[in-house]
Amino acid sequence: MKKESFSLFSLIESLFADPISAISISKKNVIIGTMMGRISSLSLIDKKIKLLNELSSENISGIIFDNKENYFNSAIGDEEILKFNNDISININSI
Question: Hey, what CATH class is 20-94 in?
């Protein structure tokens, strides 16, 4: 049986009364969405956390990476989808 080792290098910060409602993991990033509409990105390469969106009109109901992993989409409740670029971590489109 092969032994695996794991190491903890970062914690997901959460605010009081703002639980995590969506999380998605790719080869490069972990994207976290909360009930208050906060979206954060944790880089698995340089281990830095970036706040992408502080407050949305509704909760983050889903986060999906595209097949090429150059972008990810974040669903804001059931009314809006934000599209973010993974490389520079900025909002590039709102649908």
Answer: mainly beta
Q: Find the farthest-apart pair of alpha carbons in the chain and give their distance in angstroms, rounded.
A: 49
- Going by C-beta distance under 8 Å and a sequence separation of 6 or more, which residues neighbour residue 25? 31
Q: Which among 11, 40, 9, 10 has a CA at the least distance from the CA of 23?
A: 40
CA-based nearest residue to 9, from 49, 37, 59: 49
CB 91 within 8 A of CB 53: yes
Summarize pLDDT for 22-68 with one digit per residue, the tens.
Answer: 999 888 888 999 999 999 988 888 888 888 888 888 899 999 988 67
Cα–chain-centroid distance for residue 2?
31
